[in-house]
Design brief:
422 residues; alpha/beta; 13 helices; binds inosinic acid
Length: 422
């Protein structure tokens, strides 16, 4: 069984925990897009692990974790994460495979990300990790791939071209001093050596796994509305987050995918700028942010918080063919007297239920809410669906109906045990 797991909102849905849980039943766990802009948190016996690049399944013994070709790799960040795992006694040898075809985030990508952001009239609020500029170079056909770092001659040629072009642009456009070839060349060759034992032909590896009927879990990073095509462009990340991204990002054919699970928070959050129709007023946002620990796992930025938006969730379900839902953080809503779900948007007197891509419309819509009575009970100790308070069940049933997908996993806390299988 090959399963894709993706976020249905703006990221931070709690994918790390769900991947960790599902990992015990699969052979391979594969990241297919994004980079170290992601921050996947997994809590094991009171110890919190945060992964940015390495698949969250790495904590399980006997699994192969793959960073596939659709991912962009900052070697510095990867090596830091490898050392972090080693320090924590987690073995990675023979478990981690890195695609030769992954594009490498270079120092000029990180700097350009920050320079561009500082000059933008409408800031995106990027993580500053160089993700956008690295994917831009990939598409412009001047990127440097992991395989290049392993071949000093090829790397030298490619880096020379890049440094020449980039130094000129950076000096003329951004008044930046430019880049030193020798320093970057030797540093990244050294990174290549450190990564080399993990580097592999991952499309072949995964196609072989499919042939042998091994089970694969594809771990999405970010969320549907940060997708470069379907998200709230330009306030998005630079990769295809939705299930369609799996095939190009791994070399596994669409026919090999059996199931798509969507991870969704019982409310909504977003980091960075861009439209957010159901955003709370300050007081409620502060309450939920505190209770739900809504601060970015990568940048530490406070997350914006709001009501569950069924309009975006329904669109996300259909974009990726989601059949099952993992709903997270239900317990964060435990103390609220009333809880709302956005069921439609009102614009110029008309109510509609489809997600609009026109910013003019998005900025001026008024969410239409269905409001439920809260349950005012601690759900974090509940382990069976039938033990949930009736109002919580009503809320979840309505949510399922509105977005046409079935809840199979319900998370009521960050620990593995704080999970209900429905
Ligand atoms: P970038 O991916 O660093 O270019 O950032 C683009 C947008 O995506 C910004 O609004 C970021 O806050 C957001 N973003 C990127 N990665 C994540 C994530 O893992 N969770 C939530 N938001 C993210």
């Amino acid at each position: 069984m090959n399963t894709v797991l993706i976020g249905l909102q703006w990221g931070d849905e709690g994918k790390g925990k769900i991947v960790d849980i599902l990992s015990s039943g699969v052979d391979y766990i594969v990241r297919y897009q994004g980079g170290n802009n992601a921050g996947h948190t997994v809590v094991v016996e009171d110890k919190e692990f945060v992964f940015h690049l390495i698949p969250s399944g790495i904590l399980h013994k006997g699994k192969i974790c793959v960073i596939a070709n659709g991912v962009v790799i900052d070697p510095e960040s990867l090596i830091f994460e490898l050392e972090y795992l080693k320090k924590n006694g987690i073995s990675i040898d023979n478990k981690l495979k890195i695609s030769q075809l992954c594009h490498v985030i270079m120092p000029y990508h990180r700097i350009l990300d920050k320079l561009r952001e500082s000059k933008r009239a409408h800031k995106i609020g990027t993580t500053g990790r160089g993700i956008g500029p690295c994917y831009s170079d990939k598409i412009s056909r001047c990127g440097i791939r992991v395989i290049d770092l392993l071949n000093p001659k090829v790397f030298k040629e490619k880096l020379k071209d890049n440094i020449k072009e980039k130094s000129e642009i950076f000096q003329k456009v951004y008044n930046h001093s430019g880049f030193d070839f020798d320093e970057i060349y030797s540093k990244y060759l050294d990174y290549g050596k450190k990564m080399s034992k993990f580097v592999s032909n991952t499309p072949l590896l995964l196609q072989e796994a499919v042939r042998k009927n091994k089970s694969i879990l594809f771990e999405g990073a970010q969320g549907t509305f940060l997708d470069i095509d379907f998200g709230t462009y330009p306030f998005v990340t630079s990769s295809n987050v939705t299930a369609g991204g799996v095939c190009n990002g791994t070399g596994v054919a669409p026919t090999a995918i059996d199931k798509v699970i969507g991870v969704i928070k019982a409310y909504t959050t977003r980091v960075g700028q861009g439209p957010f129709p159901t955003e709370f007023h300050d007081e409620l946002a502060a309450f939920i942010r505190k209770k739900g620990k809504e601060f970015g796992a990568t940048t530490g930025r406070p997350r914006r918080c709001g009501w569950f938006d069924a309009v975006i969730a329904k669109y996300a379900v259909s974009l990726s063919g989601v059949g099952e839902l993992a709903v997270t953080k239900l317990d964060v809503l435990d103390d609220l007297k009333e809880i709302s779900i956005c069921t439609g948007y009102k614009y110029k007197g008309k109510i509609f239920h489809e997600f609009p891509h026109d910013f003019e419309v998005l900025d001026n819509i008024c969410p239409v809410y269905k409001t439920f009575k809260g349950w005012n009970k601690d759900t974090s100790k509940v382990r069976k669906f039938s033990d949930l308070p009736k109002n919580a069940v009503d809320y979840l049933s309505r949510l399922e109906d509105l977005i046409s997908a079935k809840i199979t996993i319900l998370s009521v806390g960050s620990k593995r045990a704080e999970t209900i299988f429905c």
